[in-house]
Amino acid sequence: MNWKDAAKAQFKERRSPENLKEIPVPEWSISVYYWPEMTLAERRDIFLYAKQDGDRTILDLEAMAMTLIVRARDASGARLFAKAERMELMNQYDPDVLVRIVGEMNGGTESATLEAAEGN
Q: Of 55, 83, 100, 113, which is most buried with the most CB atoms under 10 A?
């Protein structure tokens, strides 16, 4: 196996269903799963909506919705949301639940997402 194939295989293993992290969401009667690692394409989709404040990245409401679209998975790794559902996520889902899920996906640090959600 050449080094490129080895590099791809290594990342594919990290993104196997066994490596998904679980976030229980009792309000929805499900668990949302996510991989701690993101592809560059997933990062791009999120950061197109993110704001920079010095060295800190702030997820505004659209970036939080996009985070759920690209990261929220079921137990097998299939996406829960499509890109076309961005506005629906922003307008028809409980923002407190969304902020909590995104905060957990981002390492349990909800401060930046909460500030953005509250307009601070």
A: 113
